[in-house]
Amino acid sequence: MSSEITFPRQHARTQRFTLGVPRAFTVTGGGGSGPTVLFLRSRSGGDRATCLWAYDPRLGERIVADPTALLGGAAEHLSPEERARRERSREGSAGIVGYAVDTAGKTAAFTLSGRLFVANPATGAVSEVDTPGPVIDPRPSPTGLHIAYVAGGELRVIGADGSGDRALASPESGEITWGAAEFIAAEEMQRSRGYWWSPDGTALIAARVDNAPVERWWIADPANPASAPHEVAYPAAGTPNADVTAHVVDAASGERTELTWDRKEFPYLVNVSWSASGPPLLVVATRDQRTERVLSANPVTGETTGVHTRTDPVWIDIVPGAPAWTPGGGLLRVEDTDDARRVVVDDRALTDAGLHVRAVLDSGATDVLLTASAGSAAAEPETGEVHVYRVSTDGAERVSTEPGVHTAVRSGNATVLVSSSLDRFGPKVTVLQNGSPVGAIASFAETPVLSAAVELGTAGEAPGLSPLGIPYALLLPHGFDPASGEKLPVLMDPYGGPHGQRVVAARNPHLTSQWFANQGFAVIVADGRGTPHHSPAWEKAIAGDFAGATLDDQVTALRALAAERPYLDLTRVGIRGWSYGGYLAALAVLRRPDVFHAAVSGAPVTDWRLYDTHYTERYLGHPGEEHRVYAANSLVDGGDLGPVADPARPLMIIHGLADDNVVAAHTLRLSSALLAAGRPHEVLPLSGVTHMTPQEQVAENLLLLQVEFLKRALGC
Q1: Shortest CA distance to 511 belongs to which of 22, 17, 14, 5?
Q2: Does residue 536 have a cis bond before it (omega within 30 degrees)?
Q3: N or C of the chain: less Cβ packing under 10 Å?
Q4: Which fold has domain 455-714?
Q5: Is 195 helix (H, G, I), strand (E, B) or coil?
Q6: CB contact at 8 A, 415 and 27
Q7: CB under 8 Å to 594, separation ≥6 — which residues?
Q8: Is the peptide bond before 323 cis (omega within 30 degrees of 0)?
Q9: Distances (CA, A) of 436 to 138, 409, 430, 439, 463
Q10: Per 3-state DSSP, what percentage of the chain is helix, strand, and coil (rounded to 5)?
């Protein structure tokens, strides 16, 4: 047996080259003594056990907490709640996968195997705090004197020294939890938490979640028939959501005051923030997500007052970091106006149509730090690039200088800049003070055994948005000569849906596509309408029309590129994808067999009535009101399964049987419909696999099996 390290094996073993990469940065200190940066990173690119580290530009890096030492070498044991939390966040690592600190950065809290640990980053002292377990989401108070955490559905608090452990809010029934994010918030709203400390550490705002209204689904393990099915409260499109309320809880007495608003009109609690810059802010939204209201809360009386309401005829996107109070007491928000996504403080816009805002990173006394891509009015499109900017009333200043994809974390005068580019593997992490580099944090990630040669550009025109081209990435086999006269089979490799940008100016995201290219394909990644791009109109062009807009743009990009590149063989076109990309792949061979000749469809949503409320209803409306829309976008009853005399293109469907996000029923229903229509297809069920595929052998062999299928199906 060869000992050569192959890309599929390395890709699987390193969890897509994420192991050993520094992440989850917290900046503390600054001033004359310089900053201290806390972060997570495993010891090597093949080690799943993530440690908590500290970096000081004067002293370098050091480990604050090592999970292997703290557990005495024992294996981790995760509670069902922690497994679900990691699945929602797509967390596949082990060890310390999350932590929280007080304002001064002197107390850090984290869990291992459901046990609570408290660390002093300055001294490196770590102690276990005895609590009822298993613990999830521990967070120190801003003063560092107490640690709040969730255990058994209770919101509890304990002294940082281990004294005074007590329940602040206990569930009245097994359907209720306190202080934890409900499924919809964690999966779709980017809200992974369910409680927030007051600035002085004397109180908290806690979410109370009642899952009683939510329908119950059962996730079975067919490979182990003796095991009972796992119960999941899943709010499918058109069905009831969890009932979520918010309460101010006194940290000493546990006395609670409910925060009141019109929950019938605004059932979604999108976010909560409580800072020293103003009273607590709640962001709530209507179920159709076309109206969002920002509420200022009185923590004593529980009354809330609307401070801003915005509406959109299509939907309102959730932008990380906003709304929030600025240090000066202004209301910072992100709004879509005149086909531009802008940062606004009170009634003054700080950005224009030259920038398409992606996230607000920090609000300072004189500026706002944000990430943005080139907007609809930008002088240069900068395909696939995302940059960090400082914006103020004086204009916008780019913090990131090199081409690529950048983000940052800032506190005071210290900034951690994380930069990825096409010129190197993995991210470069630079520590800045007062805008000048003072150090760097190393990555221990493995160097891939292959490199990616990526061509980025735009192709064709998006209907209704002309002359906007469709962003693409093109990858060819290493050593291929376009002038040789050889024709290559084409593999489309999209995600293609909302929030899933694949065409990025960074090398690592294209490594798998390059590996497929090296197997003899010309690989095209196209980001059509609906994907993050440069304007709200582009992202909202898919309203009510997943099946039409996203598929049409794949065809447009393919044909536009082939018109200029005679080596692209349009008689052999395959497509592969996962999740939304899996839906798009199956859609392609079912609706456009004239263009696509084979597909690999991984974890596809085949019937949108089986997907969750917040995501699905945002784009397709309520199924009780939009029967035709749901039918038109369904793979099962959308009229795709005609007689077998139609071109029946080879289709492989892959699905994890433990998936609680896109449940296996999607694939089983599609397979049944295909069988009833006499259409040949292959189904690859993955026992014990969720929507992620962190299992090394599974991830490795999935790549190999896809290539074998595509070559066989396309006659390569």
Answers
A1: 17
A2: no
A3: N
A4: Rossmann fold (3.40.50)
A5: strand
A6: yes
A7: 647
A8: yes
A9: 34, 15, 10, 9, 45
A10: 20, 35, 45
In whole angstroms, give the CA distance from residue 713 to residue 362: 50
Q: What is the mean pLDDT of residues 378-399?
A: 92
> Per-residue pLDDT tens for 327-339?
999 999 999 999 9
In this model, does residue 638 exceed pLDDT 70?
no
pLDDT at 84: 87
Alpha-carbon distance of 539 to 315, in angstroms, equals 10
d(CA 163, CA 192) in angstroms, rounded, equals 27
CA 251 to centroid of chain Cα atoms: 32
Distance (Å) of CA 153 to CA 169, 210, 378: 9, 11, 49
**Which residues, other chains included, contact 60 with Cβ-Cβ below 8 Å and sequence gap of 6+?**
none
CA dist., res. 214 & res. 236, Å (int): 9
Distance CA 147, CA 156 (A): 8
**DSSP states of 218-279:** EE--TT-TTSPPEEEE--BTTSPPPEEEEEEEETTT--EEEE---TTT--EEEEEE--TTSS
Question: Are 138 and 102 spatial neighbours (Cβ–Cβ below 8 Å)?
Answer: no
> Which pLDDT tens digit goes with each residue over 228-253?
999 999 999 999 999 999 999 999 99
**130 burial type by CB count under 10 A (0-12 exposed, 13-18 middle, 19+ buried):** exposed
- Please report, as a single letter, which amino acid is at residue 706: Q
User: What's the whole-model pTM score?
Assistant: 0.95
Backbone angles phi, psi at 236, to 5 degrees: -70, 155
What separation in angstroms does the CA of 587 have from each of 546, 598, 653? 10, 11, 12
Rounded (10°) angle between helices 580-591 and 551-564: 70
Q: How far apart are the first and last CA of the chain?
A: 26
Beta bridge partners of 471: 458
Q: What integer pLDDT is reported at residue 133 of this predicted model?
A: 81
Query: What is the DSSP secondary structure assignment for residue 179, as one 8-state letter?
Result: S
What per-residue confidence (pLDDT) applies to 329? 95
Neighbours of 394 (CB within 10 A): 10
Determine the pLDDT at residue 30. 57
Q: Predicted confidence band at 153 (pLDDT cuts at 50, 70, 90)?
A: very high
As beta bridge partners, residue 334 has 343
The pLDDT value recorded for residue 637 is: 82
Pairwise CA distance, residues 119 & 546, whole Å = 48
List the one residue out of 704, 709, 693, 476 whose CA is nearest residue 600.
709
**Three-state secondary structure of 266-295:** CCEEEEEECCCCCCCEEEEECCCCCEEEEE
Residue 647: pLDDT band (50, 70, 90) is: confident
Q: What angle do CA 204, 207, 212 make, to 5 degrees?
A: 155
Give me the residues paired with residue 6 across strands. Answer: none
Spatial neighbors of 5 by CB under 8 A, at least 6 apart, are 449
List, in order, residues 6 or more apart from 3 with CB less than 8 Å away: none
Q: 674, 500, 707, 489: which is closest to 590 by C-alpha?
A: 674
Kindly state the tokens that stand for 330: 């202004």
Question: H helices then E strands: how many in the chain?
Answer: 12, 44
Q: What is the dihedral of CA 581, 583, 586, 592, to 10 degrees?
A: -90
What is the identity of the amino acid at 31? G
Percent of the chain past pLDDT 70, that is, above it, reads: 97
Residue with tokens 């195997």: 113
Are the beta carbons of 426 and 410 closer than 8 angstroms?
A: no
> pLDDT by residue (tens digit) across 50-91?
999 999 999 999 999 999 999 998 888 998 889 888 888 888
What sign does the dihedral 202-207-212-217 (CA atoms) show? negative
Q: Residue 178 pairs with which residues in a beta bridge?
A: 208
d(CA 625, CA 87): 31
Give the distance between the most distant pair of CA atoms in the chain: 79
651-656 and 598-602 beta bridge pairing: parallel
